[in-house]
């Protein structure tokens, strides 16, 4: 049975950003574990940015001689993507247009498509699905169980970008955290950053940035024609385009996470052997959207990196890009004396943050028509629904160190250390010169 849907969080109206009062009103989802959606792991993981969360590695405890730092500065910093959602409004429009073509056919010659006659599209738009709410709740529970001992009586400090699915994910995370602590801790979403203003948790502030359309379209033209030909042969008169084919393929993940059972289009997805092609489309989308392949992609993550450096060093934020200086200079809305921080964001913004930091850098740019099987930029391992990055501050033999985990996979941090995943705090800060220099001039180009 599907978990109860999360009732939309109600909070005070805001314009630029809001400081949310402690009493919040939202429906906590059922505390049972995240349900199975009945799809093999390898298929789920091929859905790229629509993949349900999975651990990309096994969490490793700090090395011998290292403990999570006991001084009164941040020990744990997390940024997490919202949980599984319905299609965005734009995606929903494209999906329905493709479906309309397919359902205009009166005689299907391929039995694979016969179900389409009785198929009803009934998905919502933009918001979390119940499965996505449960993902966030479970993430909060796991965070408490792994890191509760560093809290020292303090509540986690939680922020979210203002999109409803992001705020709701943050609220479900706090509910899971509170339940796991038997309500010894009851964190709330303390700051909501408006996506209409300065927001380090959303990619909304670089109007001159390009997009990934040239690369994803080139890949679509490479992999989709045989799939489109088969669909059109089985649905004579539908006249589907390659873009229609892609949009129909997305119904496999969207229907599945919404209904917590294999979606009807998953049989089509598997019959067309779409997994590896769909996966690579997602890699290209984020790499050339806000990642390394976009000239003005990494600069959109600079503001968050500078906030992270401020937390790690216990010093004021130094940034001239996305940060809200009013909020970041106020201890009530940007404290520097907490041990546990959790931020909630979107996948596009997190891709920019990864690139700004230097994570998962490619030895060569992704090729739009020829996937490299050894590529390190793999979106399903980076930014599935509820994907997360954790930065731990450690004390190792009397020296302060940092390590970074993405979905539990330890990042080598070759840019500031020996590649074993451990850097001194000073070396890590030094490695972030791109952020500390406000993007080396890239930020100004956002407005040219």
Task: Write up this protein.
- The chain is of the alpha/beta class.
- The chain has 2 domains: 17-85 and 131-207 and 299-445, Rossmann fold (3-Layer(aba) Sandwich); 89-126 and 211-286, no CATH class.
- It has helices at residues 41-45, 89-103, 130-147, 164-180, 213-223, 225-234, 242-249, 251-259, 266-271, 275-289, 302-313, 325-328, 347-357, 379-382, 425-431, 433-436, 442-445; strands spanning 17-19, 66-68, 76-81, 157-161, 189-193, 340-345, 388-396, 399-406, 409-410, 423-424.
- Strands 1, 2, 3, 4, 5, 6, 7, 8, 9 and 10 form a 10-stranded mixed β-sheet that branches.
- α2 crosses α7 (242-249) and α3 (130-147) packs across α4 (164-180).
Corresponding CATH superfamily of the largest domain: Phosphoglycerate mutase-like
| Overall form | globular
Number of domains: 2
Oligomer status: single chain
Mean pLDDT: 91
- Helical region count? 17
Distance between the termini: 52 Å
* SSE succession: EHEEHHEHEHHHHHHHHEHHEEEEHHH
- Number of DSSP strands? 10
Residue runs with pLDDT of under 50 for 5 or more positions: 1-32
Helix content: 25-40%
Q: Judging by the overall fold, what is the CATH architecture of the largest domain?
A: 3-Layer(aba) Sandwich
Structural class call reads alpha/beta
Determine the strand fraction and express it as a percent band.
5-15%
What Rg is obtained from the alpha carbons, in whole angstroms? 22 Å
InterPro entries: Acid_Pase_AS, His_Pase_clade-2, His_PPase_superfam, Histidine_acid_Pase_euk
Protein name: Phytase A
Active site: 82 (nucleophile), 347 (proton donor)
Subunit structure: Monomer.
């Amino acid at each position: 049975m599907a978990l109860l849907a999360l009732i939309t969080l109600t909070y005070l109206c805001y314009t630029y950003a809001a400081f949310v009062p402690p009493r919040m009103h939202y429906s906590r989802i059922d505390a049972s574990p995240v349900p199975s959606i009945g799809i093999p792991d390898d298929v789920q993981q091929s859905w790229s940015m629509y993949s349900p969360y999975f651990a990309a590695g096994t969490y490793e405890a700090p090395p011998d001689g290292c403990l999570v730092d006991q001084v009164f500065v941040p020990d744990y910093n997390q940024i997490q993507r919202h949980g599984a959602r319905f299609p965005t409004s734009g995606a929903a429009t494209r999906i329905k247009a493709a479906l309309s073509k397919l359902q205009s056919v009166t005689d299907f010659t391929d039995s694979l498509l016969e179900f389409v006659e009785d198929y009803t599209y009934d998905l919502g738009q933009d918001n979390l699905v119940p499965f996505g709410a449960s993902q966030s709740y479970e993430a909060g529970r796991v965070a408490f169980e792994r890191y509760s001992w560093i809290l020292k009586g303090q509540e986690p400090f939680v922020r979210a970008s203002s999109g409803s699915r992001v705020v709701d994910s943050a609220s479900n995370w706090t509910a899971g955290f509170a339940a796991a602590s038997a309500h010894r801790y009851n964190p709330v979403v303390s700051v909501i950053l408006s996506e209409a203003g300065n927001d380090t948790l959303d990619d909304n502030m670089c109007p001159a940035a390009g997009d990934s359309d040239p690369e994803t379209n080139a890949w679509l033209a490479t992999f989709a024609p045989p799939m489109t030909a088969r669909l059109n042969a089985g649905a004579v008169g539908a006249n589907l385009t390659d873009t229609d084919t892609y949009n129909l393929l997305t119904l496999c993940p969207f229907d599945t996470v919404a209904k917590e059972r294999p979606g009807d289009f998953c049989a089509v997805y598997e019959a067309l052997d779409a997994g590896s092609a769909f996966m690579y489309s997602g890699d290209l989308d984020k790499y050339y959207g806000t990642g390394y392949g976009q000239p003005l992609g990494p600069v959109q993550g600079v503001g968050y990196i500078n906030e992270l450096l401020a937390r790690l060093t216990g010093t004021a934020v130094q940034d001239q890009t996305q940060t809200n200086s009013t909020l970041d200079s106020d201890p009530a809305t940007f404290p520097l004396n907490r041990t546990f921080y959790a931020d909630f964001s979107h996948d596009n913004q997190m891709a920019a943050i990864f690139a700004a930091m230097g994570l998962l850098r490619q030895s060569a740019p992704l090729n739009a028509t020829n996937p490299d099987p050894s590529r390190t930029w793999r979106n399903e391992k980076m930014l599935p629904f509820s994907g997360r990055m954790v930065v731990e501050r450690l004390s190792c033999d009397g020296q302060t160190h940092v390590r970074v985990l993405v979905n539990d996979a330890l990042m080598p941090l070759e840019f500031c250390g020996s590649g074993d995943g451990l850097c001194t705090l000073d070396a890590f800060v030094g490695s972030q010169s791109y952020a500390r220099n406000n993007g080396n001039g890239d930020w100004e180009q956002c407005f040219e």
